[in-house]
Amino acid sequence: MAPASAMELEAPPPPVTPAALPAKEIKSPEVSALSSLQRKKLGAHFMDSDERRFPTSAGTRTPLGGGYEPPSAAAAAAGTTPVNIRGQPIAAADLPRTGGWVAAFFIFGNEVAERMAYFGLSVNMVIFMFKVMHRPFTSSANAVNNFLGISQASSVLGGFLADAYLGRYWTIAIFTTLYLLGLIALTVSATVPALAPSQSGCDNLAMLLGACAPAAPWQMAYLETALYVTALGAAGIRPCVSSFGADQFDERSPGYKRRLDRFFNLFYLAVTVGAIAAFTAVVYIQMHRGWAAAFGTLALAMGASNALFFAGTPLYRHRLPGGSPLTRVAQVLVAAFRKRNAGFGSGGFVGLYEVAGAKSAVRGSAKIEHTDDFPWLDKAALQLDGDLLAGAGEGETVDPWRLCTVTQVEEVKILLRLLPVPACTVMLSVVLTEFLTLSVQQAYTLNTRVAALHLPVTCMPVFPCLAIFLILALYYQTFAPLARRLTGHPHGASQLQRVGLGLFFSVLSVAWAGVFERYRRGYAVRHGYLALFLTPMPDLSAYWLLIQYCLIGVAEVFCLVALLEFLYQEAPDAMRSVGSAYAAVAGGLGCFLASALNTAVDAATRDDAAGRPSWLAQNINVGRFDYLYWLLAVLSTVNLLVFVFVAKRYKYRVRVDAQATTPVNKQ
């Protein structure tokens, strides 16, 4: 059964009964030249495994071409079967008392506090370094951009540890504790006078002129160590929390996809609640109670969330780590390279190798159906005469650096197929990063007062969060029913269609930002504000920025929520944390790419000899932020077209259900 195109909306085909499922022939480009007697077949009953092993006793494993016996019901212990904290399978009678929405809400609480700390630092740390540590504004901004980029791009570390050795629960437990220690260290930095330079004689003018006493190297070393410990904690948590929450739902139960869809929407709602708290409550506390109180609030929130997370321990369902995913990937690449000259029609060809029976060779993973993509990787599973070795009392063994199972090869194929999708979301992260800084500079020149309400400029990023909150809250009452009527899709739109819709809204957002910035700059020039770039123009409201904020909020809802759901469902069972890390890495790359783009634009557009200012001049009324926005709009449009090309050619995984032995075509 061929996988459906990712952009199709047709309902999945009816289930195939085990009796109607013939043995599946594994085909490669060169196999068609073989006679029928030379072709080797793979039994289609793919069951799961709780054991990772290559050596097995004789008689329980056969290469492709051996006839498989249908497994007994006792052998159908699924590789994705949930286990308790001690790694023991949870009895069927105890499953209703674990997992589900109750366990998920403990995880939501942890995510709210983590996002509150993350966004609280992103908003306040630049100002803290500038005003308290007396660092140049550019240097402060770069330090925080590095914090944001490292905390996202290094998420692969957390995903690797979770999938390879620790499991998601212990990875979260360790890194969330590290996160708390980093926040406590930052609170100490803001509390103890000895850890900051002297504030004597450092007024606003001295600050702008750089005349304040600079921080000592050891003081900056302490602050940066605390900041990067916090970044490391965030990097370890981010790829695991969403996956661990999704683990609480039984993928073999009816309605699993509907519950998973709702889970990821609620998860991003938790992210948004944390961001709203950071942009409002934390900013208010900093303005009225000082830096120590602001950072202390973040530490207290993180401590409370840790306590909540650990309190839910008896309720959690766990998945067994499957061993090092990097090792398995390396084994496939090395084995494929070693057999690069071997042909499927060579005299020593035996078949594509897979362990027999009900169990996969990868602990915590179901067997994966063979696909025809990346045929050069199939060489890693190409079994030739002599590949099986005699084991002392263990029957036959294999060298995993010379011969890999079909499941192991398919894991690598899946990781390669997934890469282009999160790569296309890097541009959205670039736009989000630019908005975080450029729109705040715009807001400084605008009137932020509405009636008696005067909103601080640093609170302006709360508006995209409010838009996200509203959309997520109304998603199942508004968008989903309307989209279902239009498309007939049970969820309104497929995961990749929602990602594409989000990218489309990001194009609209940045295009509107360019239009408004052109009007704002022209207004400043016409009304004599050209040199007064820090003076609000009383007749031009900052709330015109709400249009671009709301559009980018819609883009986040559709793109990032669907991306998390897509990566969780499509990633190999034993690599789901690494799959989720793809999204975080894309976000980190977006931060770094935004900084690189700004540097390139500044260098290309500045001409001091001719008196031509940069597009990104410190005086926003002299610069041309509108040109940068339109450049981003063009790049985002090209990125959207590339994504459509990728999505139309993506094929969702074909899963084989361990309970019914029924292929399930994912839509």
TrEMBL record:
Membrane-spanning intervals of the chain: 172-196, 266-285, 291-311, 418-440, 452-476, 496-515, 542-568, 580-601, 627-647
Family classification: Belongs to the major facilitator superfamily. Proton-dependent oligopeptide transporter (POT/PTR) (TC 2.A.17) family.
Annotated region described as Disordered, given as residue ranges: 1-23, 50-75
Keyword Membrane on entry: yes
Gene Ontology CC: membrane
Subcellular location: Membrane
Protein name, entry field: Protein NRT1/ PTR FAMILY 6.1
Domain of life: Eukaryota
Species assigned in the record: Urochloa decumbens
